[in-house]
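Cross-posting from the chemistry board since nobody answered there.

I work mostly on the small-molecule side, so proteins are not my area. We synthesized adenosine-5'-triphosphate and want a rough idea of how it might sit in this target. Sequence and SMILES are below. Is it possible to get a predicted 3D structure of the two together?
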Amino acid sequence: MSLTAGIVGLPNVGKSTLFNAITNAGAEMANYPFATIKPNVGMVEVPDKRLDRINEIIPSKKIVPTTFEFTDIAGIVKGASKGEGLGNKFLENIRQTDAIIHVVRAFDDGNITSVTGKVDPVEDIETINLELSIADLDSVNKRIGKVQRAAKGNDKAGKAAKAELTVLEKVKPVLEKGGAAREVDLDDDQKKILKGEFLLTSKPTLYVANIAESSMADPSQDKYFQAVKKYADDHGAQAIGIAAETEEEIAEMPDEDKKEFLAAEGVKEPGLNKLIRASYKLLGLETYFTAGGPETKAWTYKKGTKAPQAAGIIHSDFERGFIRAEIIAFDDLDKLGSEQAVKDAGKLHVEGKDYVMHDGDIVNFRFNV
Ligand SMILES: Nc1ncnc2c1ncn2[C@@H]1O[C@H](COP(=O)(O)OP(=O)(O)OP(=O)(O)O)[C@@H](O)[C@H]1O
Ligand SMILES: [Mg+2]
């Protein structure tokens, strides 16, 4: 399973800087618009303190964090939906992603060119979101044209078309006002239909204010971040303030220097860690652990996954020959301090094929092939 979060925004706002910081992949960074012309894909490790704690209680040779993907996408400009800038091609890059990390410039620096000639993060958010709405409106109108005819039939296909038409007609007026499909009130079946439309504005979105180093210790005091946060709150979304350039420098430091630098800046944890965790959640991902062997390892699954399919992530044999899962919740292990104490407290639970995995499960899969 490879879900990807796409880094999206206007040109020259710090998308590649942020991407480099998170992946250390060395994507080209430059102080001119359109430095990124093909999307860069990078894997990131998900920082998780629970791994260290598990390894402390059940020691192994190696700790292996889980990973997921970020994609650095080229800058989108006003008019992109009509082919401006590098146009539709980049909107297609966004379509391939599972969630959007929307980066806006939230730092003053006369040396860095702003394509809008000013720093106004909320206006920038609205510019991008409007382009995405226009592109989606185009897709929805085309789709309505196709589905309308089919919806006249009374057979199974006709009924499905009717259901789809209902969703499209709910979404259309919202897009016409520049809104997002994800903000339309839909029931679960309708949400499934919406997913099949592959609209840009239906993707879960996280707003990232790229702030100045001076605001890093406490982004909540930064006026640009506050504006972005308010926008996100009003739209039921999350916002994070990250000093991308500084984070990029930190990412390249040896571990000792990192600690020292963060302490000097008054930062408890790199903002990147927060961003990676928030993106992971945005993608609907959760983690289970395996321990007790040579490795203490984190595994990623999609929220709602059942035990056999979760086992299949390790190896297809585990799913094919699934018998049961023996599970300890991380919180129980953490609290009780040893596997034996967990067993004595009756907290080790044995689950069958219908068990829905919980974030933090420490699992031993039993299988037979
Ligand atoms: N928080 C920050 N403070 C000051 N300068 C920054 C900050 N973040 C990034 N920069 C600088 O802004 C410039 C543009 O950054 P970057 O190349 O990452 O933008 P981009 O959004 O990827 O642009 P493009 O759309 O052209 O790909 C770089 O010179 C970078 O060092
Ligand atoms: Mg770039």
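Reply from a structural biologist on the board:
Welcome over. Reading the output above for you: The chain has three domains: 4-50+65-118+203-282, 131-201, 304-367. The first helix runs from residue 15 to 23. Happy to explain the token format if needed.
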